[in-house]
Design a protein that fits this description.
Layout: H1 9-17, H2 32-48, E1 54-61, E2 64-72, E3 88-89, H3 95-107, H4 117-120, H5 135-139, H6 154-162, H7 167-178, H8 195-209, H9 213-225, E4 242-243, E5 246-247, E6 266-267, H10 269-283, H11 292-298, E7 312-317, E8 323-330, E9 336-342, E10 347-353, H12 358-380
Antiparallel strand pairs: 1-2, 1-10, 3-6, 4-5, 7-8, 8-9, 9-10
Helix pairs in contact: 3-8, 3-9, 7-8, 10-11
Length: 381
C-alpha cells in the first residue's frame, strides 16, 4: 500500500536544524570550482549511503540557475545513468504550485481568499466547524482537518486506484467525506499539516471553473512558465522511485490520481527551477504569473504560525545574520525532495532523490543546508 505521504513535516525539521520566466538561464553559468565541489559532495554522500540510487541538485543564485549535478542510476537494478533532463517526483514541494494556481484564480476574481467553504462548495454537506473555513485556511493547513492516514484511510485509498469517475467528481465526493469528520482543532488555530486541505482547495477550484485540477495547473502555472510536467505513472526508461531498494513502475508507484493536488508532479530539475525563480522574482514585481502583492501573500505566514500558502517560513537562520527562508519537503515514500529559497537575494537550492525515508532525507538535509549557507554567504558579499 502506498502511503499518502506528501508532507511538509520534514521541511519543518530542516528549518529547526539551523536551518516561461525570462530570468531562467537555459544552461547553468557555473563557476568551475563550485560545480566540481557540488559533484564531489553528492558523490561522497551517495558512496556513504548506497540506498540512494540517484540524486539531483540545482542551485539558484541571483535569480538564475548557477550549478546543477545529477549522479546515480535511474533504477537500482539497471546501469542506465540518471540524466540532467530526466523527470523527478517532487511530492509536496508541488503544494506551492497548487497554491499559486489558486492565487491566479483569486487575482482574477474567480475565487476569494476569504469566502467561506459553505458558499464555495454549496452542494457538499459539512460539519458546522468547517463552514467558515477559507482557501487561505486550507492552503496554510489551518482548517482543522486531520491528515490522510494509510491505516485509517486504507480502504478509501485502495478504492481510489480503481475509481473510474472523473477526477473532479472523485474530489467532490472526497470533500463530502472529510468535511463530515470531527475536526482535530479549530479553524484558524495552530497549523496542522493535512494533505486533505489541498484536495479540498482543488475541489473548490474545479467547481468554480468547470475544469479539472490538472487542466487548471497547465493553464495557470505550467504553460505560462514554460514548464513541462508529467502526472503519468513512471515507466522503465525514466528515473524510478524505490521501495526497500526495488524500483517501482505503474500506477501504484505513486498515490492515486485523486490526490494529485497534494503533490504528484514529476519534472526535470530545470523545469522545477522555473517555478521558484518566478516566485522570488515575483516579490520584486518581475513575476510572470501574479502582481507583486499576490506573491507576498503566498509567502506570508498565516496567523501565529510558520505556515504560508504552500510554503514554510523561517526567519532565524543563520543565527548570526538571519535571512528569510521559504522551505518545503515532499515524499510519497519512494522519493524525497527538498527546496529552500532565500527570496530577498533570489537564491535557493533544490534537491531530490529517487528513494525515500528518514535516512535519505537526513542526507539531503545536510547537503541542502551546506549549499544554502554558501548561497547566503555569497549574497552577503
Amino acid at each position: 500500500m502506498i502511503r499518502p505521504n506528501f508532507r511538509m513535516a520534514a521541511c519543518l525539521a530542516v528549518v529547526c536544524l539551523t536551518a516561461a520566466s525570462p530570468a531562467l538561464a537555459a544552461q547553468p553559468a557555473a563557476r568551475p570550482d563550485r560545480s566540481a565541489a557540488l559533484d564531489t559532495m553528492i558523490d561522497k554522500a551517495m558512496a556513504e549511503n548506497p540506498g540512494i540510487p540517484a540524486m539531483a541538485v540545482l542551485v539558484i543564485r541571483d535569480g538564475k540557475v548557477a550549478e546543477q549535478a545529477v549522479r546515480g542510476v535511474r533504477a537500482s537494478d539497471a546501469p542506465d545513468k540518471a540524466q540532467a533532463n530526466d523527470v523527478w517526483h517532487i511530492g509536496s514541494d508541488a503544494k506551492a504550485m497548487t497554491a499559486t494556481m489558486i492565487a491566479r484564480l483569486v487575482d482574477r476574481g474567480v475565487l476569494s481568499w476569504s469566502a467561506p467553504l459553505k458558499t464555495m462548495l454549496p452542494g457538499v454537506s459539512m460539519r458546522p466547524e468547517y463552514e467558515s473555513v477559507t482557501l487561505a485556511d486550507l492552503l496554510s493547513h489551518r482548517a482543522g482537518l486531520r491528515d490522510l492516514d494509510d491505516t485509517a484511510d486504507a480502504a478509501m485509498i485502495e478504492a481510489a486506484f480503481v475509481d473510474t469517475r472523473p477526477l473532479p467528481q472523485q474530489r467532490l465526493a472526497f470533500a463530502g467525506v472529510v468535511l463530515n469528520e470531527a475536526p482535530i482543532g479549530p479553524a484558524r488555530g495552530e497549523s496542522a499539516y493535512s494533505n486533505s486541505d489541498y484536495l479540498l482547495a482543488a475541489a473548490v477550484a474545479e467547481q468554480a471553473t468547470g475544469k479539472s485540477f490538472e487542466q487548471l495547473m497547465q493553464d495557470e502555472v505550467f504553460h505560462p512558465l514554460g514548464m513541462s510536467v508529467v502526472y503519468a505513472p513512471s515507466e522503465r526508461g525514466q528515473v524510478l522511485g524505490h521501495r526497500e531498494g526495488k524500483p517501482l513502475t505503474g500506477i501504484r508507484a505513486d498515490n492515486p490520481p485523486l490526490f494529485a493536488p497534494a503533490g504528484a508532479v514529476k519534472l526535470s530539475m530545470g523545469d522545477w527551477a522555473r517555478f521558484p525563480i518566478d516566485q522570488m522574482a515575483g516579490e520584486k514585481g518581475r513575476g510572470a504569473l501574479l502582481p507583486a502583492a499576490a506573491y507576498s501573500t503566498l509567502h506570508t505566514p498565516q496567523g501565529d504560525t510558520a505556515s504560508a500558502l504552500g510554503w514554510g517560513v523561517r526567519n532565524t537562520w543563520p543565527a548570526k545574520a538571519p535571512i528569510r527562508l521559504l522551505m518545503h519537503a515532499g515524499s510519497n515514500g519512494y522519493w524525497d525532495a527538498l527546496i529552500a529559497l532565500a527570496p530577498d537575494s533570489e537564491g535557493g537550492v533544490l534537491i531530490v532523490a529517487n528513494a525515500g525515508g528518514d535516512e535519505v532525507e537526513g542526507v539531503q538535509t545536510g547537503i541542502l543546508m551546506t549549499l544554502m549557507a554558501d548561497v547566503a554567504a555569497s549574497a552577503a558579499r
